[in-house]
From TrEMBL:
Protein name (Swiss-Prot/TrEMBL): C2H2-type domain-containing protein
Organism field: marine sediment metagenome
Length: 107
């Protein structure tokens, strides 16, 4: 079977299409059951969650945990997030400190 159309979203929620992260089809905003036999232990998301409403995709900043409706909003936020900047600088300082420590230990 060949897919001829794109996913349809309502806001940031998948309404019709295929959720590639969960590997499940969504029809009218509802997860669809997988096509595996009933007695097969497939572990599919669709088998476990068939009939449930599709979840809204959430995008959140890893540094400050602020949530955004779309990836574009998150990307814009990343350019001004003070916590993200300080977290990146702290990690860089940790790496530089560790590298200096290793060089001293090697001598």
């Amino acid at each position: 079977m060949t897919r001829l159309s794109d996913n349809e979203y309502r806001g940031v929620t998948l309404y019709n299409g295929y959720d590639y992260e969960k590997q499940v089809w969504v029809l009218n905003g509802v997860y669809q059951r997988c096509g595996h036999p009933e007695d097969m232990n497939c572990g599919c998301y669709g088998k476990a969650h068939a009939g449930e409403r599709a979840e809204q995709k959430k995008y959140s900043c890893a540094a400050c945990n602020e949530n955004f409706e779309g990836y574009e909003d998150l990307a814009t936020h990343r350019t001004v997030c003070d916590k993200l900047s300080s977290e990146v600088l702290k990690r860089a300082d940790d790496i530089i400190g560790y590298t200096k420590h290793m060089k001293k230990s090697a001598n």
